[in-house]
Specification:
This protein has 98 residues and is of the alpha+beta class. It contains one helix and four strands, in the order ββββα. Strand 3 and strand 4 form a beta hairpin. The longest helix is centred in the last third of the chain and has 33 residues. The radius of gyration is 16 Å and the shape is elongated.
Length: 98
């Protein structure tokens, strides 16, 4: 709602943004006139039945408003990604030790 006057539109559903690329990779893509955002979630099997989960973000700015918008959002983006990864780790660990 706050960003709507700047031409940044909200998607109707998160599922509209998520693309399952493979068994080990999913992307969340959002493109508008100010910036293109792509977040990639990847899993990788490691030794001893461990798994690595990584998140990568790519942003392509189309104009200065896109840069300003992402400068405001970036700290929250980092916090949310870190929190989600920690939550996934905790849930996996809990399920292993039940």
């Amino acid at each position: 709602v706050v960003m709507r006057p700047f031409g940044l539109k909200k998607e109707r559903k998160l599922s509209d943004l998520v693309h399952i690329e493979s068994e080990n990779m999913a992307t969340v893509c959002k493109n508008d006139k100010h910036l293109d955002l792509e977040i990639v979630f990847m899993t990788e099997s490691m030794e001893r039945d461990n798994q690595r989960i990584s998140v990568s973000t790519k942003v392509r700015f189309h104009n200065n408003l896109g840069k300003c918008y992402f400068a405001i959002i970036k700290p929250f983006h980092i916090l949310i990604c870190t929190t989600l990864l920690q939550r996934a780790k905790n849930n996996i660990e809990k399920s292993l030790y039940r």
